[in-house]
Amino acid sequence: MIDIIETTLELAKEKFEKFGFKEEQINHLISSGRKDLEQEMSKLKEILSQTDIDTTTLNNSLHALKGLLLNMGNSKIADKLIELKNSDDTQLKIEQIKSIFKF
């Protein structure tokens, strides 16, 4: 989980620099992005810890994370989450999410 956050923040910094944002703006966006990623990943981890997982709630969390990752430039992981969200095999989905985020 930490690796994905740090990688995403590095990608976001590069992306924001290319857009011409000032350092102060970048620092604010990175700080906000870290907070949002940590919160959403914590929600996902909580969802996965439940014995009876609601697939709608799980898919909503995957959708939120996908959006954050795409906005911050981590399309590689975002694309994986899109695939997982569209998967009908809930057990495989859960196993792959745990593997990706190292939960």
Structural class computed from helices and strand pairing = mainly alpha
Query: pLDDT average, as an integer?
Result: 94
Straight-line N-to-C gap: 7 Å
Largest sheet: none
> What amount of the residues lies in strands?
under 5%
**Uncertain runs:** none
- Helix count equals 5
Radius of gyration: 14 Å
The helix/strand order is: HHHHH
Total domains: 1
Mass-distribution shape: elongated
Number of strands: 0
**Helical amount among residues, as a percent range?**
over 70%
Structural summary, described in words:
With 103 residues, this protein is mostly helical. It has one domain (2-101). Helix content is 82%, strand content 0%. Helix 1 packs antiparallel against helix 2 (23-49), helix 2 packs antiparallel against helix 3 (55-71) and helix 3 (55-71) runs antiparallel to helix 4. The radius of gyration is 14 Å and the shape is elongated.
What distinguishing features does this structure have?
mainly alpha, 5 helices
Helix and strand topology:
Elements lengths: L1 H17 L4 H27 L5 H17 L3 H11 L4 H12 L2
Helix pairs in contact: 1-2, 2-3, 3-4, 4-5
Condensed summary:
The chain is mainly alpha-helical and 103 residues long. Helices cover 82% and strands 0% of the residues.
